[in-house]
Amino acid sequence: MTAAIFGLWINWVVAVGVICLLASLMPLLPHVWLLPVTIAAYLLLQVLKYNQSKRRVPLCSRPLHEVSLIIIITAIISALIIMLLPATGSREFNGELFTRDTPLIGILISAPVSCVVCLCFLFNRYEPQNCRRCKMRYGNVIEFSFVGGLYRSEWRFQTRLLLFLSLTLSVVDWGYYLIQYVNINLNRADYFYFLYLPEIIYVLSVIYLGGRYYSMWYYYCHNDEGNFVKRAGATTLRFLFICNDCILVDMRPTPAHFENGAVIKRFDTPVIIKTDYHEHESLAQAQMLFAEQTGIHDAEIRLIYSSPDPVTYQNIFHYFVFVKDREEVEKANIPGEWLTIGAIVQMLNQRLMSREMQSELMRIYDVAMTWKTYDDEGRRLYGIKHYKPTFRVRDIHKWDVNYDDEKWLQIYHLNQDKPFWRIRKFFSDLSQKIPLFRA
Questions:
Q1: Which residue of 212, 233, 354, 431 could cross-link 268, Cys pair, CB 3.0 to 4.6 Å?
Q2: Pairing of strands 246-249, 234-243
């Protein structure tokens, strides 16, 4: 938990520090050195992202992803300014003559670019590829646990903070540039607005976030009343009942309530077993626990996938339970109603299912449809573009597909029916061989 909380602060220190460093160096370096220095900074962030992706404890690298994009866009704009500059020079926005020897004020480019990139990420409804890979690798710890919620909320907080700081610098520096700046040389006021002011704001943000995450760490790791980390871990076994074309759903409302007092109805699978924490759970042990809980000894049980949580030790194992006759379930007094896939889809659209069951059903559907539609390389198995085969619940028992294999989740997001598939697949394959190209 310490690594998870302070990792957010470290990523801010490194990522925003790189932007601040580049903005401070651009007026001082010759133009020929700008591109190599920018590439070196970008590669540094990629190495850090790659190292974080291999850790046992997940660290949120989404701020690094945003800053990498800011650096690339800033480098492209800077290169275009230098390349398209006429030999005799050109006039700047403030009327001054800009030549190849004139310092390039980096903060005037990087600050507005940061504003635009932050806005795009805040309003974007789709997660970037590195977030999808993080979910595929860490599962439950990112999707449902405290750490995942912390990362999602703090990413939005850091992005808004970066947006606010970038917007402030854009207004102040561009105002000074248009009113007071003369590009004959850099005087003390120029140094303050273009170099020292971004560094001062960066240091203040580091101190502020350091205090924020120290308080958060102290509360969750040392406060006896609210201590979350030292709570004993637990392993949860979830069993999804299937009989022919129906799935068993417990329709009883949960005891939780909304703020206005209305009952939260989140329906779930009827059999959920919690035990002491186990990093691994054998199928034989799961069958024994299921038989003790329900009294059903002859049901066929298969592992769907596992959701490990190495941070708070709250992992989940998801299982299929195939029953031949509904009377077996009725005799065991297991509560629930048998619903068809159509009824379940309606409940999902109305957000009546629990998050865990929604995640299970979506993963089963996505992996199965991908496995039935594409080969191991993401190529279509059928000649018809965007063709979708039939999904039937009764066929799940016959399918030989590994729902725990990340390969099918990757193909679901990158296959022959996606735009620019060959180009994106080339860079995706390249990223597996050369970590520096990992997006």
A1: 354
A2: antiparallel
**Alpha-carbon distance 407 to 409, whole Å?**
5
Count CA within 13 A, CB hemisphere, residue 78: 34
Q: Do residues 324 and 296 make contact, with C-beta atoms less than 8 angstroms apart?
A: no
**Reported confidence tier of residue 116, pLDDT bands at 50, 70, 90:** very high
DSSP secondary structure letters along 11-50? HHHHHHHHHHHHHHHTTTS-HHHHHHHHHHHHHHHHHHHH
State CA 304 to chain mean position distance. Answer: 23
Three-state secondary structure call for residue 248: strand
What would the DSSP string read from start to end of 401-439? --TT-HHHHHHHHSSTTSTTHHHHHHHHHHHHH-GGG--
Q: What are the sequence ranges of the domains in the chain?
A: 2-222, 237-367
**Mean predicted confidence (pLDDT) in 20-37:** 85
Say if CB 303 and CB 404 are below 8 A apart: yes
- Please state, in angstroms and rounded to a whole number, the distance separating the CA atoms of residues 422 and 306: 31
Q: How far apart are CA 249 and CA 255, in angstroms?
A: 17
Q: Homologous superfamily of 237-367 in CATH?
A: Nucleoside Triphosphate Pyrophosphohydrolase (3.90.79.10)
pTM score, two decimals? 0.65
Residue whose entry in the numeric block shows the structure tokens 């020929």: 32
Q: What is the DSSP code string of 135-200?
A: HHHHTHHHHTSHHHHHHHHHHHHHHHHHHHHHHHHHHHHHHHHHHT--TTS--HHHHIIIIIHHHH
Q: What is the pLDDT of residue 314?
A: 74
Counting every residue, how long is the chain?
439
Beta strands in 225-379 (DSSP E): 234-243, 246-249, 271-276, 300-307, 316-322, 337-339
**Phi, psi (degrees; rounded to nearest 5) at 380:** -65, 140
Q: b/e per residue, 227-263, with b = 16+ CB within 10 A?
A: eebeeeebbbbbbbbbbeebbbbbeeeeeeeeeeeee
Give the β-pairing of 316-322 and 234-243: parallel
Can you tell me whether residue 226 is helix, strand or coil? Answer: coil
